[in-house]
Amino acid sequence: MDIQGNIVDIQNKRIFKGEVTFENGKIVSIIEKNHDVENYILPGFVDAHIHIESSMLVPSEFARLAVTHGTVATVSDPHEIANVLGIEGVEFMIENGKKVPFKFNFGAPSCVPATTFESAGSVIDSEAVKKLLENPDIKYLTEMMNYPGVLFNDAEVMKKIAWAKHYNKPVDGHAPGLRGDAITKYINAGISTDHECFTHEEALEKLQKGMKILIREGSAAKNFEALIGLASEHFENMMFCSDDKHPDDLIVHHINKLCARAVAKGIDVFKVLQMACVNPVKHYNLDVGLLEVGDFADFIVVEDLINFKTIQTYINGELVFDKGKSLIKPVAFKNLNNFNCSKKEILDFRFESSAKKIRVIEALDGQLVTNELIEDSLIVDGNLISNIEKNILKMTVVNRYHPDNYRDEKPAIAFIKNFGLKEGAIASSVGHDSHNIIAVGVSDEAICKAVNLLIEHKGGICAVSNPDSYREEGKIIALPVAGIMSDQDGVTVGKHYAQLDAMAKQLGSRLHAPYMTLSFMALLVIPSLKLSDKGLFNGTDFKFTTVEYD
């Protein structure tokens, strides 16, 4: 089959009118040829680090949306489902992804659970990591979030890294704010990338010390503006990634949007495309074509090199997106889950206290890092409650992995600033990384109502209003696949998510992505304060702390 257009040769930094011929899934020739076609042909985009689960879609449904934006492959960390279901969850992702023409490249989760300070549904130790890395479908060891374990030579952590080296597979990093001698030791352990930089200076230091830096722009964490200035000089060692992308965003754009933004800032288009297309393929040794003779026929046709609007997407020579329509068909799959939790009572969320001051998590819009604040408490009848006027709300994390015959522990309680709710509550069973239930609300009653709605459905995200509110009483997207993914199609999920997001904002939230932000408030490996099902945690000191300050 032949296709004509302006061929973008990234390696030689040239564009020429030509024709690409491909047969049996591979490119057999690329020749210069005059024609009247104005479109551009270039390699497909690669998301260099993403958790497919955070789209709330199974891989096959994620692919149906991603190809509409010219994405042909992902470097996918399945540690979300691994925290719920272990190796069985990783195998589900691989097998479901194989059912569609899209190039998922999964890694062996390095930190399941992410820490020992929370309850997860499974454990993947070094022997399990070895078993996964033996599989040719596993391309790398995923982000080593346990950076203290690296710095202090934890035996189990170092075994996992050693197995990745044994199988000659890259090790991804996760080291927010790590600088100086600490980051040097982290890199020297064999860790090659980081997607957690949130300042120009941090990223520059890591680049200068030999790390590859991923510019992350997801639904919650947005580091593009802080880091893109490094691309002109360091493009050979940088890539683009989403990390976490909700379905309503995925419907609209993907890596193509980051390319457009980078070009708009004056970054040379060949440098931009090397970051978006070439670098992930070479770093992770992916079986993804780069528009060269003999390569897999993985390429896209776009209108221009300004907006990168995709007209067609080809994967292994198969047309998977054409003029506004994804050609990937839905596939059947069996739901699997791990959700054992009984319904709660309002009294379960009471926090008996007489403290005048409390520690408060300060959520930052567009960031995963948080700050620790010391604020005045609000106590009614001996119960610490939300202070709506000061935008300080009660938050809870509820363990969802108890066996049915086990008496549930009391939910963990903390307080958080900047969610902005004036009524009701929002809740989610997407709570990185252990995926317990997490909720924030204006009252114990609203929080209990939201938590129980999720328990009833064995997973989901929801919003509930106050009982006397004129708004609808509650809205939920059920997530029956591991409590973190839907079994519905991407467009439906994206539409319902947008409605749920709108309801959260009607309840008062001013965050750009309230559910995505909420989901990271239990991620203990990101400083400073976070909440696990076992209590308030200081991610800087890596130890538990107290809500009561005095």
Write out key terms for the chains shown:
TIM Barrel; eight-stranded mixed β-sheet; 550 residues; 27% helix
Largest sheet: 8 strands, mixed
Indicate the percent of residues in helices: 25-40%
Report the total helices: 16
Order of strands in the sheet with most strands: 3-2-1-4-13-14-15-16
Provide an overview of this structure.
- Helices cover 27% and strands 26% of the residues.
- Strand 2 (14-23) and strand 3 form a beta hairpin.
- It folds into two domains: 44-287, TIM Barrel (Alpha-Beta Barrel); 346-544, no CATH class.
- Helix 2 crosses helix 3 (87-98) and helix 12 (255-264) packs antiparallel against helix 13.
- It is built from 16 helices and 29 strands.
- Strands 3-2-1-4-13-14-15-16 form an eight-stranded mixed β-sheet, with helices on one face. The chain has an eight-stranded mixed β-sheet with strand order 18-17-22-21-24-23-25-26, sandwiched between helices. Strands 5-6-7-8-9 form a five-stranded parallel β-sheet.
- The protein has 550 residues and is of the alpha/beta class.
